[in-house]
Amino acid sequence: MGLIVRSSAIHAAGCYTTTRIRKGARVAEYTGRRISKEEADALYEDSLVTYLFGLGDGQIVIDGHCVTMFINHSCEANCETSEVDSRVFVTAIKNIPAGAEITFDYCLYDGGDDEATCNCGAKTCRGSMYSPDELRKRKAAARKDAIKAKNKAAKKKKSLRKPTKKKSPRSKAK
After folding, report:
1. Which of 42, 45, 58, 107 is the most exposed place for a label (fewest CB within 10 A)?
2. What does the mean pLDDT of the chain come to?
3. Is residue 161 part of a domain?
């Protein structure tokens, strides 16, 4: 099976197959140097693009430098990834015709404030490369933050009000 890198409508460059790939076939292995998440964060702090793939619980990542690093995200992917003995394989989840772009769902789970906007153009695009679980967590956190901000603003507004003195009823002297 041949893989090539060329221009992609999804994101800059993409990985394409030159031959037909059958469902269930192993397409490629994601290879590169293994580094800690902390090292990757420091190394790529100011980088707009990274090719990192988290292993296991995400504390170790593969710093990808191979043709596989050009496989783009799609919400309607034709491949999936699996980790076997600390190696990451890309496997076809449907038959893929020759000339098609190879994609998998990134299911991102770490990215700070980055929106990780998806450009896949799929009918079922969720608008983000984050996993559905991560999107739910982020929405819940945003709602919680909005409630806190609203309560804080209301409390501040209440403390800014000037207290008014009530006049006590006066008795008239006769």
Report:
1. 45
2. 89
3. no
